[in-house]
Amino acid sequence: MAKKKGSSNSGSKSAQNSKSEIPNPKSLVGIIMGSQSDWDTMRNASETLTQFGVAHECRVISAHRSPSLASEFASTAESRGFEVIIGAAGGAAHLAGVLAAHTTLPVLGVPMRSEALNGLDSLLATVQMPGGIPVATLAIGKPGAVNAALFAVSILANSRPELREKLHRFRAVQEEKIRATVLV
Ligand code: RP5
Questions:
Q1: Which terminus of the chain has fewer Cβ atoms in its 10 Å neighbourhood, N or C?
Q2: 133, exposed or middle or buried, with CB in 10 Å at 0-12, 13-18, 19+?
Q3: pTM for this one?
């Protein structure tokens, strides 16, 4: 069985939590997911942040199975230097909302594709926050994971011109690929 412990930084191969529960203080983005089973999707967020050279940590924290850890992580995130939190969960996906309840940092929600309802449950649980506690919710699954990372880079780029430049280059490359597409 995959470990649900340990801390990982900058796109390591598994989502783990550290024994001390204190993540790398240099991380700017926390990628938090409700279960190890979310990692295959959320590794795409990690890989995107790595592509932009953004220090981050990937951790499994469940709003339901480890509620005090969720509260501890989010309530101390700002003082530990995090600037953005990505919360990914499936089913009764309360994780992003619970994280947002404990911090004023921007929280980006990524609904996981679920077995029972194909992610519609995750989407609604993540997006339908009550007024006052915002969660910026992205698409279900991999596109949401990638876009959450890009959104995080975009937020960080407000005070980091080098990241803004990288985003411009990313868009230019993307457009170039479309322009160069030849249908056969
Ligand atoms: C959620 O329940 C997790 O985010 C995951 O998407 C879903 C299923 O979790 P496991 O039963 O696979 O651990 O909390």
A1: C
A2: middle
A3: 0.90
